[in-house]
Amino acid sequence: MTTVIDVDARGMRHCETTALGVLLRHQGLDLSEPMLFGLGSGLSFIYWDSKSMDFPFLGGRVKPFELTRNLATALRLELLVQETTSPHKAWENVRASLDAGRPVGLQLDSYHLDYFSSKVHFGGHVVAMYGYDDHDAYLVDTDRQGGAVSTGLAGLARARAARGPMAARHRSFTLTVPRDVPSLGDRIVPAITACADAFLNPPIANLGHRGVDKAGKLVRTWLQRTDAPERDLPQAALLMEKAGTGGALFRNLYRDFLDECTRLLDSRHLRTGHGLYAEAAPLWTEAAELIAKAGESGDERCLAQAGALLRDLSRMEREAMQALSRLGS
């Protein structure tokens, strides 16, 4: 059995920040999960629907692995990413890192992991790996999935080889912390303003504040969008609250990040943004509850209320991001 020594196998709320936390703590850099998420400019929104999808999807963060790249840039971390179409080469990449005493991050399809509680294909899942033996891989996943867990090597190989939306080619990665880590106070403003600018100026109407407003209009039609509303609407609500989002479709994490930043930076624009996200986060949870209730009861009034909330949230988050975008002025 090979395991990396002194790994803090702490599961957190979101998969990518959990993996990042494991890799960075192993090198002595211990940041809170909201700080990892915020420095990675992780907050976003997408209303995703197509003819090939059974039901629409509401996403609340940037695409998989973009958060990791953003964080590496913000903190001047050395990010080594390896991808390959060869399963053998993919395993050798990971084993070399572990044998050298370094935990490694993996992007994979969670469906094939033995311990995963929800058997749904998701190719953008990220874990940290810290050991292996002849039969199993030892991973760190979110606290909801068990934190320090193990899965069979065969299933891990299938998870890494899976193809589909958001999947990568056997992606593995390591991070190296520089001797002089930039001051967090110097890095939070660029991270916040980059996130705000992307949210305020989306290239298409499905993204950012425009996407939230669009969701507010379309969610009202969701009972007619499916033949099984009692299944699909509660599932959509569950994904908003429980599927590694930290609750409120990642808004809880961003609210807590902004709160942490107010202790590092004295700015009325920052306090305004934090206050608005503190108001918005519970409204996202309320919207999810209304969507679930509509599916269970068939009551269209619940979706009308959820839609109205989402349109209010579009305005509220636009105002929050407008204030936060002024941090760079």
UniProtKB/TrEMBL annotation:
Q: Which residues form the Butirosin biosynthesis protein H N-terminal domain?
A: 14-142
Q: Where are the transmembrane segments?
A: none
Q: Name one Pfam family in it.
A: BtrH_N
Q: Where would I find the DUF4872 domain in this sequence?
A: 155-324
The positions making up the signal sequence are none
Superkingdom of this protein's organism: Bacteria
- The name of this protein is Lantibiotic ABC transporter
Q: Which organism does this record belong to?
A: Actinomadura namibiensis
